[in-house]
Design goal:
- By secondary structure, the chain is α/β, with parallel strands linked by helices.
- The chain has one domain (2-256): TIM Barrel, CATH 3.20.20.
- The protein has helices spanning 14-27, 51-61, 79-93, 113-117, 126-144, 171-180, 193-202, 229-236, 251-256, and strands spanning 2-7, 31-34, 66-73, 97-102, 163-167, 183-187, 212-218, 241-246.
- An 8-stranded parallel β-barrel has the order 1-2-3-4-5-6-7-8, surrounded by 5 helices.
- It is globular and about 50 Å long.
- The N and C termini lie close together (5 Å).
Length: 262
């Protein structure tokens, strides 16, 4: 099982994130993931760093650790901007980029406040939010294809292309991930977790590669141990990546941990 970290830039200043990222790489963690929010209010903080800008800085500050978004709000950017931004991060990093996508907030979601405050439209239709996820995936695949149209010849071409993961909170989005994405992420505590993974597995998959299952938990020391009961349950459920949220990373403490690397 790959063991990854996610830092909250709403509660942690850049210098600490930078030092924690370097320490995480030295300790053997497999990937670093970032949030995609406009303001810190959504994730209990006082400010926020933009996702791709932060990933570019992490790419320049580290050497080996994989980088990703968990998850990108597909309504914050036009699909082509998302594709080019992810390709840019991978070019700077010189190593894999994982683009985790989410369907955005519903109008009554607690995360909608930041969009409303900024005057950004909120899509009320769940089906149209899912359609936007599919549009972003399709656009990325088209722009990143080595067989792409001549009109796209000077767009950045990441080789291999970034992995596309979908954060699923309902069966329809899980099924979309199963059909079109490289991976699906469901929080471990989600009350319908098993149903969502099952919905992804039942989907009529169009990709030749197996779907990667990942899950998400707050960082706790016991989760670093392979024989931990929850880790064993995750392995039994076919989880391949575990993403641990570190709200206030201590670079010295991270450097002292020794995770099992996938």
């Amino acid at each position: 099982m790959y063991l990854d970290l996610q830092f909250n830039s709403a509660t942690t200043p850049w210098p600490v994130i930078r030092d924690a990222a370097i320490a995480a790489e030295e300790a053997g963690y497999d990937a670093l993931w970032v949030f995609d929010h406009l303001a810190g209010l959504s994730v209990n903080g006082t400010s926020m760093l933009e996702a791709f800008t932060l990933l570019g800085a992490l790419a320049a500050s580290t050497e080996r650790i994989a980088l990703g978004t968990l998850v990108l709000n597909v309504f914050h950017r036009q699909p082509a901007i998302t594709a080019v931004a992810a390709a840019t991060v991978q070019a700077i990093a010189g190593r894999p980029m994982m683009l985790g996508l989410g369907a955005g907030s519903s109008p009554d979601s607690p995360w909608a406040a930041e969009s409303r405050a900024a005057g950004q439209a909120i899509e009320p239709s769940l089906s149209r939010r899912h359609a936007r996820v599919e549009q972003v995936i399709t656009t990325c695949r088209r722009l990143w294809s080595v067989e792409r149209d001549e009109a796209l010849a000077t767009f950045p071409l990441p080789v291999p292309p970034p992995e596309l993961h979908v954060g699923a909170s309902g069966p329809a989005l899980a099924a979309l991930a199963g059909r079109l994405a490289d991976g699906v992420n469901v929080p471990w505590w989600h009350r319908r977790r098993d149903d969502l993974f099952a919905a992804a597995a039942r989907a009529d998959r169009i990709l030749p590669t197996p779907l990667v299952r990942s899950t998400y938990m707050p960082f706790e020391d016991h989760l670093l141990a392979e024989d931990d009961p929850e880790r064993r349950a995750m392995a039994a459920a076919g989880i391949e990546r575990l993403v641990l949220l570190v709200r206030h990373p201590d670079p010295h403490a991270l450097a002292a941990t020794v995770p099992h690397s996938g």
